[in-house]
């Protein structure tokens, strides 16, 4: 950055590469984006929530509250039947100097512009369909991970309720407020994960109790 702080770091791990974008701070700089040559990539909003998340199957775009705005699948890496969800070109500014442009799976660029100088990093990759078929199955989540997911939903529910109380101080209006639809979808996903993971019924019941508290 013009301040002298490190903006973009490219690290090689064995035969893999990782590109990291940091915020403009001299120390304890937060990570604004990470891209891996394996096809995984994540961008973060200024408040730290996930903005864009991609893997070898596709990606999703979320707002600062965590709501899913849109999703897409890569044409050559889909694993489910049916037509892929096409990608509309995406361009986001991580800050005044660094931007990310996503045009296709192999056309993802991090651009840096400062003091009349520009640098571009191609962080896209392409995974063939045959490679996807050889991927190992996703490991089931453990008890601690499921409980953490449940607590995260519960905390976000409480914050949403607090926001509603601050917006509508009248008690009569509280009962009319409905929680965002994504809370229900996330709760359903965690419940399904409990069924497919090797956890006890006690943990499953605890997860449901946390979500429905």
Structural account:
The structure is a single chain. This protein has helices at about 130-135, 145-165, 170-175, 180-195, 200-210; strands at about 10-15, 15-20, 30-35, 40-45, 50-55, 60, 70-75, 90-95, 100-105, 105-115, 115-120. It is α+β, with helices and mostly antiparallel strands and about 210 residues long. It has 2 domains: about 10-120, Outer Surface Protein A, domain 3 (Alpha-Beta Complex), CATH 3.90.930; about 145-210. The strands form 2 sheets. Strands 1-2-3-4-5-6-7 form a 7-stranded antiparallel β-sheet, with no helix packed on it. Strands 8-9-10-11 form a 4-stranded antiparallel β-sheet, with no helix packed on it. The relative contact order is 0.10.
Question: What's a quick, concise take on this entry?
Answer:
The protein is α+β, with helices and mostly antiparallel strands and 213 residues long. The chain contains 5 helices and 11 strands, in the order βββββββββββααααα. About 4% of the residues have low confidence.
